[in-house]
TrEMBL record:
This is tRNA modification GTPase MnmE. Binds 1 potassium ion per subunit. The keyword Ubl conjugation does not apply. Exhibits a very high intrinsic GTPase hydrolysis rate. Involved in the addition of a carboxymethylaminomethyl (cmnm) group at the wobble position (U34) of certain tRNAs, forming tRNA-cmnm(5)s(2)U34. Its main location: cytoplasm. Keywords: Cytoplasm, GTP-binding, Hydrolase, Magnesium, Metal-binding, Nucleotide-binding, Potassium, tRNA processing. Homodimer. Heterotetramer of two MnmE and two MnmG subunits. PANTHER family: TRNA MODIFICATION GTPASE GTPBP3, TRNA MODIFICATION GTPASE GTPBP3, MITOCHONDRIAL. One of its GO terms (cellular component) is cytoplasm. It is found in: Cytoplasm. Belongs to the TRAFAC class TrmE-Era-EngA-EngB-Septin-like GTPase superfamily. TrmE GTPase family. The gene is mnmE.
Amino acid sequence: MVDTIYAPATAAGRAAVAVIRVSGPASGEAVRTLTGNLPKPRQAALRTLRHDGVALDDALVLWFQGPASYTGEDAAEFHVHGGRAVVEALLGALSALGLRLAEPGEFTRRAFQHGKLDLAQAEAVGDLIDAETEGQRKQALGQLGGALGRRYDAWRDLLVQALAMLEAAVDFPDEELPEDVAARARPGLETLKAEINAALADVARGRRVRDGFRIALVGAPNAGKSTLLNALAERDAAIVTATPGTTRDVIEVPLVLGGYKALLADTAGIRETADDIEAEGVRRARVWAEEADLRLWVVDAGEFHVKHSEHHAIVRSGDWLVINKTDLVAPTVVAAIREQTAELGLHVAALSAREQGADPIRAVLTDHVVQALSGAEFPAATRIRHAERLGEARAYLERALAETDDVELAAEDVRLASRALARITGRIDPEDVLDRVFSSFCIGK
Ligand code: GDP
Ligand code: ZN
């Protein structure tokens, strides 16, 4: 017997309207008890909700007869006034009727179980709820539309065709079949391997859209990193002082650049230090800087000596050198720094953060992020979970392609590759993976 569940679908707190969702076999009975009768399915009806003879609220009531509902079960929605007392009264009434408060993600989990969504689409529901930027919204919506699932289904079709040929070669001795039937499986497998390779190469971009493009500010104490960070963040996230070494840990601020989420970090002045706490800050800063997608090496134009700098070891070709405090030096000094650093292959920007603020740097960063991420809204994978399964599938494929003698072994590897792909959309996934996917949801989704 399946429970009937309920939960507020809208955020807690005072609001004009709150939506309470119900799903499960007892939904219709609950609507009838609270409103007197069932409205026409999928049509809004204005009803007074009553429980134990007491009026709770005037509500807009929607009744969905399964399977034509979000979850695929009988379901209902009550749109009530958003006051806390109203919501609590209705939740109390639903509980008294024997319904159970939903677990986080349980509505979407039921939708998955009834075949309304695949696992990747269910994840996209969570991503869409969390989306804060245009890039995140487009990516989640594409995934929710099933773009990802369709791609995997097409890949599994290729595998099934290859498997059919390999199994035919195993099951029927050669007299009945053309000799090369096993070899005919090869082109499809090669195509698939190439597509999975391309998808894996794109995973990093897809994850950057979802989680944010990481930009590290590195440079000696007092170079102006915190000043730039605050100007970019348009608030005082980092403490700006004239004492070197004040920024001890990694301070991360989220930015939106060209419609994409970015994370900007002010790393503590990376240098040798005797202080334990400071050393830990330096270590974390170094890791953050090394793993970032882009580094901005901020230097004080008046203090720069490339030979004395530890930071040129951290930056890579393609990163940016930001020559700051140009208000303090003659243009020839800036030209000299450009010359000294030419061999590092860095892009160079020169400015006075004090006089110009962050606008010149914001423009540079926006171009960089847009170039790096545009077109990545519809990747084949947006999560580590997807990338792991893709990597597994590729490994099995490679083994199948390398197996030239034993067709049976090759067929088994193709079967394993297909399972790995199937786990991304959850067609055959064990419960624990489902728990992991749905537990990150909030209640009512
Ligand atoms: P950080 O240690 O790299 O984070 O450097 P801060 O941002 O804390 O800046 C150190 C000092 O340099 C502060 O006193 C800032 O006001 C000053 N400063 C930052 N940018 C400029 C600039 O463009 N010109 C001048 N003259 N001073 C600046
Ligand atoms: Zn600082």
